[in-house]
Amino acid sequence: MFERDFCPVYSINDAPEATYFPIEGIIPTGEVKSSVNKGVLFKALDNVRSAKMLRKHSQKTDEGLGPLAPF
């Protein structure tokens, strides 16, 4: 899910496998699994951890050149 009115979508040749959404416009993330075993469960939990670590906003910093956004 993403904010359609506020989020640009980048796509190469309108191919779904080459479509990118900026993190700032993403609302939730999720995975659907047809079966689960211990390895799949731990990989899914690692993916949740990875998604939670994404920064959804910039924080201004002063790196000697005045206030700058880190990205």
Descriptive account of the structure:
There is one protein chain. The mean pLDDT is 78. The protein has a two-stranded antiparallel ribbon. The chain has a domain at 1-49. Helix content is 23%, strand content 11%. It is α+β, with helices and mostly antiparallel strands and 71 residues long. It is extended and about 50 Å long. A hairpin with a 4-residue loop joins strand 3 (61-62) and strand 4 (67-68). It starts with 9 loop residues before the first strand and ends with a strand. It contains 1 helix and 4 strands; from the N terminus they run ββαββ.
Low-confidence spans: none
Count of extended strands: 4
Helix-strand pattern, N to C? EEHEE
Q: How far apart, in Å, are the first and last alpha carbons?
A: 23 Å
Largest sheet: 2 strands, antiparallel
Strand order of the largest sheet: 1-2
Computed Rg: 17 Å
In terms of structural class, how would the helical and strand content be classed?
A: alpha+beta
| Helix count from the secondary structure assignment | 1
Beta-strand residue fraction: 5-15%
Q: Tell me, what's the shape? A: extended
Helix content: 10-25%
Mean pLDDT: 78
Work out the oligomeric state of the chains in this entry: single chain
